């Protein structure tokens, strides 16, 4: 009995091996598999080409709009261009995945229906994701800020690198990239919409002739304005701002291009110091006066 079972098992195994060898040695199998692999490679290459062509077309469209007779907001055009590029990438990749699945004889009807059900479940469960997408849409629609703007969101301040429907990427001036979900953006300060104002306070000693010092400041800021491209109009010397214990503070204001006030203030401070040194104007420093009292001894 054991020998019969053994012979039967060997016979079944031999039949399985024979069928496997016949299946693997079938030329039609390898031919079909080769064609399938070639089709998948062609689909992948075609998707990459379509994405690259769409990106180039978007760039040319943005350039044509900038050079056209009707001028559009460059900030908004750049932001919308990046967003449209992202949407095209997502759509093309999704279609590519569906076409690759169809090469493996996968019925796409149930897949699409299942994706719809899963998307509906995610919509109810991931409310924060839906909130991020809706907020991102309104950020772009209302033009709250655009790519290239300098903004502050909470404790994060930097240049907007990318605005998506879900997250916004902000790069700080020290190099860190902050990825902020759009749904958490409650209040935004945009530093790139209007011109900025540089406020420079200059202190001189009480012994200085104020009219002479102000004349030097006026000449200095006029010369500086003629050579600086970051200022919108000539700086104004407002006059005496405060009078302290050891100094008189003069205030200067300069209207600059957006986010250029810090650089303008630094350069202007350097020019003022050079002008003061050349004209002998004293910059105040802490001084201490000591009184010596002498008392006569009683006789």
Automatic annotation (TrEMBL):
Disulfide bond in keyword set: no
Q: Which residues form the Mechanosensitive ion channel MscS domain?
A: 129-192
Membrane-traversing stretches:
29-51, 83-102, 108-130
| InterPro entries associated with the record | LSM_dom_sf, MS_channel_1st, MS_channel_C, MscS_beta-dom_sf, MscS_channel_2nd, MscS_channel_C_sf, MscS_channel_TM-2, YbiO_bact
GO terms (molecular function) for this protein are:
mechanosensitive monoatomic ion channel activity
Q: Check the record and name the SUPFAM superfamilies matching this protein.
A: Mechanosensitive channel protein MscS (YggB), C-terminal domain, Mechanosensitive channel protein MscS (YggB), transmembrane region, Sm-like ribonucleoproteins
Q: Mechanosensitive ion channel transmembrane helices 2/3 domain: which residues?
A: 86-127
| Annotated Mechanosensitive ion channel MscS C-terminal domain residues | 199-283
Q: How does it sit in the membrane?
A: Multi-pass membrane protein
Q: What does this protein do?
A: May play a role in resistance to osmotic downshock.
Give the protein name, as stated in the record: Mechanosensitive ion channel protein MscS
